[in-house]
Amino acid sequence: MDTVTTADTVSSTDGPATTSSAATAAHPDSATPGAGTAVPETSAVPGTPVAPAAEKPKRGRPKGTSTARTTRVVELTLTVAGSADGEWQAELKRGTTWIARALPVTAAAVQKAVAELHQDLAAPIEEVIVEARAAREAKVVELEAQLEQARKALAELDPAAP
């Protein structure tokens, strides 16, 4: 009959923890070296802790490694630029690669797209579009006045006009 007895003692105090093990085997074919004799673990310097001969593998997965799927981040940069004349352009960049450059877009499309994104983005762009619209309306009034003057000048040059 084979008998193997193992006793582990761990004491927890304010000082370093010490561990002592004693293995007793009654069979000479035992895998434990020095079977049948109890050899206490001691360190060369008294008062220092003794490291266990072989650490038990920790249960579970190692820290720092995650089995969760990482989210793939795609970086796209959309630049929408408008001029004082009310002309808008869009450019799209993925990382360092240009996907589209200098695409003309309407002010209405810009307003709609920005309103869909976020209200904080829509308000400042709406102000810019309103200013551009007011400038265009002033230009139309000015051009209509010039057109009226040109029609009068043409009418004076026409001899058939009364």
Write up this protein:
This protein is of the alpha+beta class. It has a domain at 77-157. 31% of the residues lie in helices and 24% in strands. The chain has two helices and five strands, in the order βββββαα. The protein has helices at residues 107-117, 119-157, and strands at 4-11, 18-25, 76-82, 88-94, 97-105. The strands form two sheets. A three-stranded antiparallel β-sheet has the order 3-4-5. It has a two-stranded antiparallel ribbon with strand order 1-2. The chain is rod-shaped, with a radius of gyration of 44 Å.
Spans of 5+ residues with little confidence (pLDDT < 50)?
A: 1-13, 15-28
Number of strands: 5
Distinct helical segment count? 2
Largest sheet: 3 strands, antiparallel
The residue-averaged pLDDT reads: 75
Quaternary organisation: single chain
Strand content: 15-25%
- Distance between the amino and carboxyl termini: 139 Å
Please state how the strands of the largest beta sheet are arranged side by side: 3-4-5
Net shape: rod-shaped
Helix content range: 25-40%
Radius of gyration: 44 Å
Class by alpha and beta content: alpha+beta
Element order: H for helix, E for strand: EEEEEHH
